[in-house]
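stage 2 :: seqdesign
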């Protein structure tokens, strides 16, 4: 067994496995490559058996979603490091080396994200993670290289390793001991925002998270839930509120949740104006889904809020929409 395992969660992704898995195996000699299958109903398992018999396959009993799927599978994996990799990611030669070197240099470093570029527009950052993730003071996520729907061309402007608030689940290095001691992903999230919630807890536990630009991968994106899927809208809005409720200190909790509910309402009206009725309904359902989660979330509040000082101290919504600052460099130089 090697120190590191590259772990791919698969659900009905036979096409992506066929397209990308051989290169993952070829370009990851430093790691064991393992597939966790989330009870796929396509030909994923037969493909793995016939074309990749050398890799370990862990079969979950049902589709537990991203969060639960990884939790159930990783409980059976005992390498020191995990690299959670989406099935729709193309890795490059030696992509693991800079990540593993950086992790070895800093025992307090718990998670790392490489540079995430767009598989279909290869000189541009990709939506999910780009050059490392941050949260503004109201809990809105943004990245170096991606703010809301503005995706920057990679001109080397984010080529410096840096501390970040969150690393994307599309390609997520995490030390196994930290992952397991913190309880892994929150399975009630099912999918979306669960990696940001985990990163928040990693910071609260006193660890750091970094972006490693000398490792590059290419992400297709939307492989499981398309960006326009109302379920994706529901999960993103519900889980963002859930994450804030779990992790904000009491004096910040209610003012920020109240403001977010108002801003969510404005977003839903924008969906309606644009004719996206299903997304409008999804936001309303997300709020009721969040209210139903509050008893559970209350029990999950730990009373440790060290990560609060690592939130960006401005509103990304104000700077992007009101001040028309569209890129990370414009926003964070002001």
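stage 2 :: out
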């Amino acid at each position: 067994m090697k120190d590191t395992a590259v772990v791919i969660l698969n659900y009905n992704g036979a096409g992506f496995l066929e397209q990308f898995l051989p290169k993952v195996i070829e370009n990851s000699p430093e790691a064991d490559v393992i597939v966790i299958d989330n009870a796929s109903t396509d030909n994923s398992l037969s493909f793995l058996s016939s074309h990749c018999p050398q890799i370990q396959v862990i079969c979950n009993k049902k589709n537990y979603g991203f969060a639960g799927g990884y939790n159930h599978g990783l409980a059976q994996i005992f390498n020191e490091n995990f690299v959670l990799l989406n099935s729709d990611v193309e890795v490059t030669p030696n992509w693991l080396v800079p990540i593993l070197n950086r992790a070895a240099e800093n025992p307090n470093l718990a998670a790392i994200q490489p540079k995430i570029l767009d598989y279909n527009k290869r000189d541009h950052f990709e939506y999910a993670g780009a050059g490392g993730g941050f949260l503004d003071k109201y809990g809105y996520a943004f990245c170096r290289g991606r703010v809301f729907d503005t995706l920057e061309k990679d001109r080397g402007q984010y080529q410096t390793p840096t501390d970040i608030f969150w690393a994307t689940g599309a390609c997520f290095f995490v030390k196994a001991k930290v992952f397991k001691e913190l309880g892994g992903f929150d399975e009630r999230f099912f999918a979306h925002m669960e990696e940001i919630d985990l990163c928040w807890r990693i910071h609260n536990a006193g660890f750091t998270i970094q972006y490693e630009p000398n490792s590059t991968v290419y992400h297709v994106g939307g492989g499981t839930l398309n960006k326009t899927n109302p379920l994706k809208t529901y999960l993103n809005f519900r889980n963002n509120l859930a994450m804030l409720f779990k992790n904000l200190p009491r004096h910040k909790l209610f003012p920020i949740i109240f403001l977010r509910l108002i801003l969510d309402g404005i977003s839903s009206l924008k969906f309606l104006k644009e004719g996206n009725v299903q997304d409008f309904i999804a936001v309303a359902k997300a709020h009721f889904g969040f209210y139903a989660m509050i008893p559970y979330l209350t029990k999950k509040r730990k009373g440790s809020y060290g990560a609060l000082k690592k939130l960006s101290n401005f509103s990304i919504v104000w700077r992007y929409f009101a001040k028309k600052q569209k890129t990370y460099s414009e926003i964070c130089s002001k």
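stage 3 :: structure notes
- The two ends are 48 Å apart (CA to CA).
- The longest strand covers residues 208-219.
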